[in-house]
Records
---
Amino acid sequence: MTHSSPLPTQQHDYAGLPRLSTAALHQRREHTFLIFAGIFLGTLAMLNILGITRFINLAAFIEGSEAWKYKIAIAVGVLPYPITFLCTDFISELYGRKRANFVVFTGLILNIWVMTILWIGGALPGFEAPDEVGEGVFYDVRRLAFGAVTASMIAYLFAQFVDVQVFHFWKKLTKGKHLWLRNNGSTLVSQLVDTTAVILITHYYAGVLPIAEGESLWPQLLAFIAAGYLFKVVVAAVDTIPFYLGSHWLRRYLRLAPATEPAHPPAAAAVEAGVG
C-alpha cells in the first residue's frame, strides 16, 4: 500500500473472488471510507459537546475506594474517544496516510464549526430576562464545551497526527508485517500524548477537574492522566482483534493487496493502464 489512496482502476486478484467493475469497486471503497470517516467525525462532535459535563468514577465498584486519597475518574467524553483512533487506523491501513491526515484535518474544521454554532446560539437574543442571560442548561453546556474543545482540539491535533505518523513508521519498519504492532504501537503513543494534554489543559484552562482542596495538585493530575490512559490502553488492546479481522476482510472486500505485498506489481499496473 502506498501513502496515497488506491485507485478504483487497480484491484488485487483473490482466488475465489470475482474482479469488480471500476464503478462497483469505487462505490465499495468510497462507502467504506465514508462509514469510517462518519463514525470518526460523529464521535468527535459528540464527545466534544458531552466532554467534561460529567466525570465517571472508575473505582465505584471497588470496595473501600471512597477512602482513596486520589480520584480514579475519566470525563464522559473520553468513553467513545478510542473509537476515533481505531477509525483512523483503518483509514491509514486501507487508504493511506494522506487520506487519514485529511480526515484528521476535517475533524479540526468540525470542532470550529461546533464552537461557532454554540457561540452564535449564546450571542443571539433569547426569551430570558436580562438578569438570566448566561444561565441555564444551554449556557452550562456551552461553557463546558468551550473548555472541552479548547483542550481536545490542541490534544487531538497532536495525538491524531502522532497516531498516523507512528502507524506508518511501524508499517514501514516491519514491511507491512505485525499488524498488531502498528495498531497498538501508534495508539498507545498517541493516547499518552492526548491524555496528558487534555488533563493539563482542562485543569489549567477550564478549571473543571474534580480536584480535592487541600491536597497536592500534581499527584491528583497524574492520577487523572493514569486513569484516562489506562482506560484507553485497555480499549486499544481489545480493539486489536476487530482491527485484525476487519483489515483482513476489508482488504478482500475492497480488492486491496495484502499489507505484506506491493499494492500493484509493475506488470499488473501496466496491464490495467492499457500498456502491453
Note: Residues 262-276 have pLDDT under 50 and may be disordered.
---
Amino acid sequence: MKSLRRALIIFFPLSFLLFGLFSGAIAEEINVNSQIIEKFKRAKIGEKVDKLIWRGGLVLSSDSPDFGGISGISFTGPNKKITMVSDIGNYITGQLIYDESDKLLALVGVEISPIRNSKGNILPRRFAKDAEAIDTIFRFGQAAAVRIGFENLTRVADFELNNAKPYGAAKKVRIPKELAQERTNASLEALCIAPPNSPIAGSTLLITEDMRVNDDIAAFMLGNLDRGKFSVKKTNSMNPTDCAFLQNGDLLILERGVGFLSFTMQLRKIAADEVKPGARLEGEVILSASGSDIDNMEGITTHIAADGKERIIIVSDDNFNDWERTLLLEFSLR
C-alpha cells in the first residue's frame, strides 16, 4: 500500500506536467503597464472623430522582451478577455478593464505562450512564426476556437480554446494554392469570419497585403457556399493590415501607409451585401489619422460594450523597436 501511495504521489504531478506540455498550456505571466490615452485627433472621449466616436485608448508596455509585435486581436472569452498574436509566434492573452463610465483603464492578467505547429511543437523558425491575424470561431454561441493567418510561410490554422486561451496543436485550414505558395511578407495579412447576420455567414475572408489583381489587392473567401476570389480597391499608398465584421455584417478593413517620418492609417467600411465572391470592394473611409495619434496600426476587432453599443478596437505593432509603441485605441459608431 505504501508503494502504491508513493507511485500515485509521483504519477499525478507528472501527469499534470505532461498535460501542460502537450496542451500548450505553459505560459509566462508578465506585468503590462497601461497608460491611458485621453485624446485622439484633438477629440476628447465621447466626442466625434471623422465618422466614429472616440472612446479612449491605452499605451501598453512591459519589461518582458516577448511583449510586442502585435499583429492581430480578438475577443476570446467573457468579461472582455482577449487574445493577440505576435510576429514572433506568440499568443498574448489578457483581460481589458473598464471603469464605471465604460472607459478603458488597463490590460491585466497578461500571459504569453507559444503558438504550436500541427505536431504540437513550438514553431521552429522565425520564417514560420509570423502570425498576422486572428479571429474567433463560435460554436453554439460560445467562443470555441481561434483561426490564425500567417505570412511568409503562408498558411491558416485553427486552435482550440480553453478558458478563453488558445492551446494545443494547429489544425490546418485549406486555402487557395496560389496563396499558399506565397513566401513573402506581402502575402496573407488580414483574416476575419463573417457573423450570423452577414449574407456570407461563417465564411472566412483572407486579404493579402500586396498581392495584386490588376491594380487592386488580391483577397480570397472560404465558405461552403461562398468561396472564391475577390479584390480590394487599392487607395493611395495604403495597404490592408486586418479586417473585422460588425454585427450587422458590414465589413471593416484597416489599412496602413507610411507618410513623412510617420505612419498613416485609414479604416474603410463596406456594406454587408457588397461582400461576396468576385466583388471589387471599395466602401467609405470612416476614420483616418497620421502622426503621433497613431503608430503601425495592424490589428482590429469589434465587441459589444456594457451599454449595448458596438465598439471597434485597433491595435499597433511596435516591431520590437524602441521608437514605436503598442497602442490600443477604441471607437464606437456614430
Note: The two ends are 70 Å apart (CA to CA).
